[in-house]
Amino acid sequence: MTKPESILFFGTCLIDMANPEAGLAGMRLIERAGIRVRFPQGQTCCGQPAYNAGYREEARRVARLQLDVLAGDEPILVPSASCAGMMRTHYPRLFEGTPDAARAGQVAGRVVEFCDFLHRVLRIELNDLGPPIRVAVHHSCSARRQLLVADAATALLRRLANVSLVEPDHAHECCGFGGTFAIKEPEISSAMAGDKAAAVAATEVPLLVSQDWGCLLNIGGTAKQAGYAYRVKHIAEFLWERTEVAHEK
Amino acid sequence: MRSEFRLRAERSLASQRARGNIRRAMDGLILKRRAAFPDLDELERLRDQGQAIRDQALANLPELLERLERRCATNGMHVHWAEDAAEANRLILDIIRRHGGHAVLKGKSMVSEEIGLNAFLAGHDIEPIETDLGELIIQLAREHPSHIVAPAVHKDRREVAELFARHFPEEPYGEDIEHLTALARRMMRERFRATRIGLSGVNFAVAETGTLCLVENEGNGRLSTTAPDVHIAITGIEKVIARLEDLAPLLTLLTRSATGQPITTYVNLISGPRKPNELDGPHEVHLILLDNGRSRIHADPELRATLRCIRCGACMNHCPVYHRIGGHGYGTVYPGPIGAILEPQLQGLERQGELAQASTLCGACGEVCPVRIPIPDLLNRLRFEQAQGRALRHGRRSGRERFLWRLWSLIHASPASYRRISGFVTRLRILARIRLGPWTRTRAAPRIAARSLHVLAQREGFRDD
Question: How many angstroms separate the CA atoms of B283 and B119, rounded?
Fold first, then answer.
């Protein structure tokens, strides 16, 4: 993919209501790179919660709306590997054999995860203006195993000169969110989140960064309840706060 | 009300010692597997090959099983078909009785667990003697295996030492592994000498040659299948493979995925009873082919992938849920991710459907599966079947769940209603904090923004068109 003139930004429902600053930061970063950013106001949710719970008809109903509002040719930027993964890999499957199959495939093919876009497509240069800081990074399972874009997040953070990255113990392991899993099996979910939050605390960093707000909602909420001192931040917001963009290649 | 599964999981979570033991063991197995596949390209090639071999075998399952039966018969084995657990148990009992046996030496067999053989035999005054060290520990502790490859993985050596001290009080106490294995070996030798019937599982059954392949590390498998007069092998019908040459790639995938070993200490290729000119081996070999729901799984083109499984256990070794609750938390013979797709299919969604929910869909299992079973996709499929209500009817609960998802979808399928709801939530965000149920039991309530991204984007001039 070459650098496009404009993109569509799909903010995700979680960021929409729980962390719009991250969405805004993401859009500003892309805009600052000289790309026109459009935010379709009709967008809602990718449909993953229902899809993962086995409610495919309900997921299709919601996903169909996104197919409507995301029509066009521009890349669709998603600041979450989890939601991007749903759209990229599961939309074709979800609409297989339906009249919407073709456009579902078209939309899926245009979906790009945010970090992947900055790193691989824009090859963005980041001029770190912040003070030195140690930061732990958490990769979502979707980033790590579904879309293979975890490296993109790490690569972006490595471009920040004053940021040193720390990998917590058992970093490869899921945080235990899993959508409805956290509600259906709360005991196991809490045990996983507790271990994850503790592993981050053991690194003694002040901040945990991730490209997926869902994981951070889980880990951050657990950490806060447990009394750990570190905060959590979406990578888009972190990158925006610390940088100004040099001339992109 | 908490389900049986949740209550069991809670008990497992509370058992800190077992959790620690499992975690340590799994961490070790993960490292060993990784070290066993240093060349990732080779691993992916092998996985392709493994999948192709298994898929091909499953595509020709009826023919291959018939060929296997013919070849085994030519080799002098007796082949039996068992529709279900009861029939398999009955067949085994009949063979033992015909030979006047009162005890059976057992090599490790998960299928024997599946049919509840030990309890069945004990109920008919026949003593099942587990000869695998892990299985022996489990038997002495009156438990069930917590892992399909390492059945006693939840116990540490101190627990084993205490267990042995209780059962063999005349022996000196010791906690180191050498001492414990030597003790088990001494106990076992006596039984091997005296018992005339052996029983084992099968890792692969080769149709072309009528060969049963059995891998193990302790030599107990070899002894159980060669020292007694009668050897009974039991396996699920899906374990058949077409050719002898298929064995090599599957074996290396199996042992490296399971324990990180390039090959197990013992690889047994059993091709029939003792021949007239031979000095050892059983006089009679029986093969029992168990269906027990497998042909039903086989009939579904997507779910059929479940039957590719070669029982290496890598999926559970890498599963964060299994790490927390262990095999006993699942409460089924096959635990972990493979159990979560297999058990609901073997036993029915109405009985074991919740196992399909007990996953974050993190994908760690699918990533390591040596035969590329798409476990997360199959979990999703089973959840779909559940949601369809084809099998699971929890009455009010499932009705309410369906209603909530319908409501959710109606809200999110309409920009106008989504805007109304998000406006409501962001304005009344203090109220929204209270209603998060189990989430907030161990987590601080999430912050709800005062203004949604929709509102902020508009305000900042990010256009819609």
Answer: 27
State the Cα–Cα distance between residues B464 and A42, nearest whole angstrom.
9
Report, as an integer, the average pLDDT of B27-40: 98
The residue written with tokens 């200490």 in the block is: B265
CB contact under 8 A, B325 and A47: no
Q: Which chain A residue has its CA at the smallest distance from B426's CA?
A: A17
Question: What's phi and psi for A168, nearest 5 deg?
Answer: -70, 160
Q: What is the pLDDT of residue A248?
A: 39
Q: Is CATH 3.20.20.330 the classification given to domain B302-393?
A: no
DSSP code for B451: S
Domains and CATH numbers, chain A: 6-121 (no CATH), 133-248 (3.40.50.11810)
Whole-prediction pTM: 0.95
pLDDT in tens, A169-188: 999 999 999 988 999 999 99
Asked if A178's CB is within 8 angstroms of B439's CB, the reply is no
Computed over every residue of chain A, the mean pLDDT equals 96
Is the pLDDT confidence value at B349 over 50?
yes
Q: Report the sign of the C-alpha dihedral through residues A160, A166, A172, A177, in that order.
A: negative
Mapping DSSP to helix (H, G, I), strand (E, B) and coil, where does residue A133 land?
strand
CA nearest B198: which of B104, B129, B126?
B104
Which of B324, B388, B449 is the closest to A19 by Cβ? B449
What was the pLDDT predicted at B314?
Answer: 98
What ipTM, to 2 d.p.? 0.95
Q: Is 3.40.50.10420 the CATH number for B4-295?
A: yes
A173 touches chain B (CB under 8 A): yes
A vs B: CB pairs below 8 A: 208
Interface membership of A198 toward B (CB under 8 Å): no
